[in-house]
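Raw record, unedited: DUF5655 domain-containing protein
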Amino acid sequence: MKYTKPEIISLKNSNEYNEKWLQARIEEDPSVIGLGELEFRDTEKILLGGGRLDTILYDPEDNRRYEVEIQLGKTDETHIIRTIEYWDLERKKNPQYEHCAVIIAEDITSRFLNVISLFNGFIPLIAIQVKAIKVEDNISLFFTKVLDELKFELLDEDIVSEPSDRNYWEKRATIQSLKLMDNIFKELGELVSEYKPKYNKHYIGLEKNNMANNFIEFVPRKSVVIMNVKLVKSEEHDELLEHSDIDTLPYDKNWKQYRMRLNKKDIPANIEVIKKLVNDAKQAYRN
């Protein structure tokens, strides 16, 4: 194997590799931009009031659409405004989805990165820089996320959650599923010995010294308990669950948590796996 020096190609100045070519590569394989296993939905969509949205991508797991605008060369004011405008039109027209604006450009300067970052947190916005690399007769594309979507999360003590009690949950779920939750709590032993259940209207969390510490949550159902463990998705934890008998639900990307559907039979066979997840979540929560 020999080393070959790559050549960076300017798509803006290329007669062969233009914006349409780049757009086609993204639509053929949306995963290349680094936002997960997305699906292609639409191209050059004509919007109400004029304008064409370059590309719409879709994440079926999160029911989320990405409004993608592509620009060769340096990004500029009109590119930013157009991207936000198209995102706003789409989210108003299709409120059943979550929406995120995506800017893709060859050169996102520090000046415009600062401008874009002013919107981030208020407008879900991702900026991706693309480079075309030529090696002999081959060309490759490299996408680098230079600005990720910023999400503001409320601190536990600031979240207004309508309080409830055990009696409420016994009526909403069943006495048996509450006992199953008690059993899980008992099996976790020292990991949760300093906490007690905090009964809220939509979930049962943890509290310590009258303060919420929700690194795990329980949602009792009629015959099972949904257990949420707040952990950033990782290969280690994915493999741990894959090699267990636990019935897992899709990972919750919005709240960054693993979700498990547990019944009485799951606990004895999988308690060590559950303990590992809870311990890691507890450590991450403290940090």
